[in-house]
Amino acid sequence: LQPQADYSLRHHNSFGFDVRAEYFVCTQGTEQLRDAVQWARDHDCALHVLGDGSNTVFSSDVDGLVLKIGARQIDSEKLSAQAYRVIADAGVNWHALVEHCLATEQYGLENLAMIPGSAGAAPIQNIGAYGIELAQLLDSVEIFDTTSGQCRQLNAAQCQFSYRHSIFKTRAARNWIVTRIHLNLSAADKPCFHYAALQQSLQAANIQNPASKDVFDHVCKIRSSKLPDPKVLGNAGSFFKNPIVSAEKMAQLLARYPQIAHYPEAEGRAKIAAGWLIEQAGWKGYRRDAVGVHDNQALVLVNYGGGTGQQIATLANDIRVSIREKFDVELEQEPVLVPADNSPACTMR
Ligand code: EPU
Q: Is the N-terminal amide bond of 210 cis, ω within 30° of 0?
């Protein structure tokens, strides 16, 4: 195993930032992963594990070893007449997995079509869209513990999923690398389409009883109309989480802003559409240097070409301050800043 030195990460992050890794290696399978971890240890290098780089903001060149998970096998097991267990290596592209499962009549992932990133990164932020969260479909996650050199399997409860969050984002996971995910899928073509924008799109096409393929097609259509394709315009999807506020805070906001887009949460709390807040604060379509706020979705920050992670980080901070001042609401950033924040070095993005 010989990592490459001074390696451009431009094609390994969805913002397309042209930063360099001191060392870079792409591993296939657990043995190579073990070797790469050992290499980093022998060379006294920090280890940064990378999936498809769609949730990462590289703010400068990266010291140490950037390890990309390359393993891309998909296995499937029929558990009963109605149930499948699909096991995907961490390096499988997420959308390719959704397409593969649909084509082989293993249903459940349709609503999560076109989410950029790898299968291994999916449980870390508990990806979700159009009424479904990964947590609802996940059986377990296999990890490699770089401290002990052992592999472990965590069941869904142990993953501690919540909205865009899991144990993999905590200190407990700082030495773990996700190697495989196990999903519970169904042989029954019974899609979920209660999400308002999805329902509207299906109705507009006169589809009363959608099949999973219809849901897949319409999710792709909605996403393509709102969200920029990272291959064309660098971005990392939603840049902030939708903030969850107390019932009291929500009542105060509604008194001042009756139109505020929000959704009910447990115990009277509410999840506010951060895109609404950012648009109301005047940021939608804003451009500064080579970075900006997307024209169609204010929650998405974009690199028009030649921008830097630092410019994105500064813009994000200005947006955060402005939302705090206008609405007294805190926005939490979704993508991870590398190497400048203190998140676990050994988790996969
Ligand atoms: N809105 C605005 N202006 C905007 C954007 C949104 O006013 O510029 C308001 C509208 O009222 C709209 C509402 O916000 O109806 C919700 O917008 P949208 O349906 O686009 O969803 P979102 O809350 O902005 C979330 C996820 C997306 C996911 C969609 C669909 C988060 C942080 N984002 O976005 O996930 O695709 O719902 O389920 O939860 C991602 O995580 O990267 C991501 C793209």
A: no
For the Cβ of 284 lying below 6 angstroms from any atom of ligand 1, the answer is: yes
Would the CB of 298 count as within 6 Å of ligand 1?
yes
Tens digits of per-residue pLDDT, 283-295? 999 999 999 999 9
- pLDDT tens-digit readout, 13-27: 999 999 999 999 999
CA separation for the pair 152, 319 (Å, rounded): 40
Q: Which of the listed residues 235, 276, 332, 336 should we mutate to test ligand 1's pocket, taking the one with most ligand atoms within 8 A of CB?
A: 276
> pLDDT tens digits, residue range 117-154?
999 999 999 999 999 999 999 999 999 999 999 999 99
Mean pLDDT of 312-337: 97
Please work out, in degrees rounded to the nearest 5, the angle formed at the alpha carbon of residue 241 by the alpha carbons of 67 and 335: 20
Residues 138-156 as b/e (b if ≥16 CB within 10 A, e otherwise) read bbbbbbbebeeeeeeebeb
- pLDDT score of 348 more than 70: no
Q: Kindly give the distance from the C-alpha atom of residue 294 to the centroid of ligand 1, in angstroms, as a whole number.
A: 12
Which letter does DSSP use for residue 203 in this model? Answer: H
Whether 86 is in the pocket of ligand 1, judged by its Cβ within 6 Å, is no
User: What DSSP designation does 134 have?
Assistant: G
Is residue 291 lining ligand 1, measured as CB closer than 6 Å?
no
For residue 93, CA distances in Å to 74, 97, 348 come to 11, 6, 13
Q: Which of 140, 157, 154, 166 is closest to 349 using CA atoms?
A: 166
